[in-house]
Write a structure and sequence with these properties.
alpha+beta, five-stranded mixed beta sheet, 4 helices
Length: 135
């Protein structure tokens, strides 16, 4: 129980550093070239094992004035209700991937997102921090 209390005190940057470290472990173990869903499931497993609260494929409605639209947005991973993680396994990240994370940040109360592409030779080259507002 103490472990859980320690983790809930983590800020967005501390959580992001933890997720980076867990992603690095997965990348070193599995390497590039697998399906996005495989990396997402492994990262979900590692985050839970670490003791952080994580939700997978979290539905995110679009609210326009007084209309709530269930348009099918899904956050890959939402950690501690503070950090959004979008997992990719693509040849290269592009502007549409960044726009996707920015949209999720704007529609949620989150300020920080990580866009992680596991399909890279060097893991750190596939990780992008995405910030919404002042952090």
């Amino acid at each position: 129980m103490v472990k859980r209390q320690i983790h809930t005190q983590m800020n967005e940057n501390e959580i992001a550093k933890t997720i980076f470290d867990l992603g690095l472990i997965i990348h070193r173990t599995l390497g590039p070239g697998l399906l996005e869903s495989a990396y997402e499931e492994c990262l979900f497993y590692e985050i839970r094992k670490f003791g952080l609260k994580v939700e997978k494929q979290k539905a995110l409605p679009l609210i326009y004035e007084e209309v709530k639209l269930e348009v099918g947005y899904r956050i890959d991973l939402l950690i501690e209700n503070k950090l959004i993680v979008e997992v990719k396994s693509v040849e290269a990240l592009n502007d549409i991937h960044l726009a996707q994370v920015l949209t999720y940040l704007k529609l949620s109360d989150c300020k920080l997102g990580l866009l992680i592409n596991f399909n890279t030779n060097l893991f750190k080259n596939g990780v992008k921090r995405v910030i919404n507002g002042n952090l």
